[in-house]
Amino acid sequence: MNSLRMYGLLIRASIRSRMQYKWNFWFSTLLAAIINAMQFLLISLILWKFGSLKGWSLYEIGYLYATIMLSKAIYRSTANDVHHLEKYLVSGDLDQLLIRPIPLLLALMSQNFRIMAGEFIQGLIILILCLKSLMQAGQIDWWALPQTAAIIATGAVILFAIGLGTATVGFWITRVSDLQNVTEDASHTAVQYPMDLYPMWLRGILLTIIPVGMANYIPALYVLRHDFGPWLLPATSAFALLFLWAMLRFWKLGISRYQSTGS
């Protein structure tokens, strides 16, 4: 509890530091919203023309798009510098975090905290519009709302675990940006759309080796299409916690292999 309280204090200090440059904050928020809006607008135009994609409607794809966006926004807001561990390893700044009286991971997560407001706002707008349309069509009911909230939270845990595992590899190879392009950036983009579009081998990778498909696609099959059964969402949450535990163990192993730039 003391560590969590310290984390909260460090986060507030980081927010105050960022808000000293309010114009930069709002400009970057607007720019992020425009970029993401253009990405979704492109697929929306295609679906508006042809009606569906592999049997998935515009609103179902919007649901996948919004849930993974919100999960990613939570992960990158609360643990942004986990994604940027490479710069600490290269510069030697990780040594400064090691001497702090809190766990290294907590110290790293509190560095350069940023609220991804553009992603949050756009993701919520898309999600609300899609949920409303799916409810009006009778495809889902009000029970889908708490289920969706659980999917977003579980997805954030899975994305954080993937990011943590990828960053930990940096304790051995130092440069992990190219690996992150695959395990985080490319995989996140892939599951914005139905995995039915991809060949079986790629689906296997996105569900096992890089299990980003567990963050939105698999639970969405139950919420949107009532596939499998009510056990699916608890099973997905259990998988997320087990996967996070494994990555935390991997992180501790990585720390034990870390050699300071001065050693």
UniProtKB/TrEMBL annotation:
Keywords: Membrane, Transmembrane, Transmembrane helix. Pfam families: ABC2_membrane_6 (PF06182). It comes from the Bacteria. The keyword Endoplasmic reticulum does not apply. The keyword Aminoacyl-tRNA synthetase does not apply. The chain crosses the membrane at residues 21-48, 113-131, 143-173, 201-224, 231-251. This is ABC transporter permease.
